[in-house]
Specification:
Layout (H helix, E strand, L loop, with lengths): L3 H17 L3 E3 L14 H4 L1 H17 L8 E3 L10 H6 L11 E4 L5 H11 L4 E2 L17 H13 L5
Parallel strand pairs: 1-2, 2-3, 3-4
InterPro entries: Metal_Hydrolase
Protein name: Amidohydrolase-related domain-containing protein
Organism: Rhodococcus pyridinivorans AK37
Length: about 160
């Protein structure tokens, strides 16, 4: 789901998810790296690029067609939401995505999660653990409840409300 053709191929699945009120979870696929690259390379380069592509493709091809579909993006969508100003400056949408768009915390720390939440809104962030590579994020304060309970409940409800 990285371009118009991908959205066309996936249209029957997306239509069914929308029809039954189920969410779509977007996660990076296999990541190849040059054998000389360090082991962390795919997670920091290929996965991030895949999530950027998925985020911007959703804005361009998915959201206009399926505005009510709830979508959860792994790994804070590769931090793509932080590029909203740049996207708007280049002629892309200048608005925050619909209320049904969420990102998970994956293996990011509190400062990065807060930066993304400040742009999208704290009601768009859900817990993601990225185990076994990193433990789930715990803020240790009032921010834990929405990220761990309230926001995931909104993302994963199983019917239209």
């Amino acid at each position: 789901m990285a371009d118009a053709d991908g959205y066309a191929r996936c249209a029957p699945l997306l239509d069914e998810l929308d029809r039954v009120g189920a969410p779509l979870f977007v996660h990076p696929g296999p990541a190849a790296a040059d054998p000389s690259a360090p082991p962390w390379w795919p997670a920091m380069v290929s996965y991030v690029a895949q999530m950027h592509t998925a985020w911007f493709a959703w804005h361009e091809y998915g959201a206009p067609r399926l505005p009510g579909l709830r979508v959860g993006f792994a790994m804070l969508a590769g931090l793509a939401p932080l590029h909203a100003d740049r996207m708007a400056a280049r002629g892309g949408p200048a608005t925050v995505p619909s209320a049904g768009v969420f990102v998970d915390t994956s293996s990011y720390g509190p400062e990065i999660v807060e930066a993304v939440a400040s742009g999208l809104g704290p009601d768009r962030v859900v817990l993601g653990s990225d185990r076994p590579y990193a433990a789930p994020l715990l803020f240790g304060d009032a921010r834990d409840e929405p990220v761990r309970r309230r926001n995931p409940a909104r993302l994963f409800r199983t019917s239209h409300e």
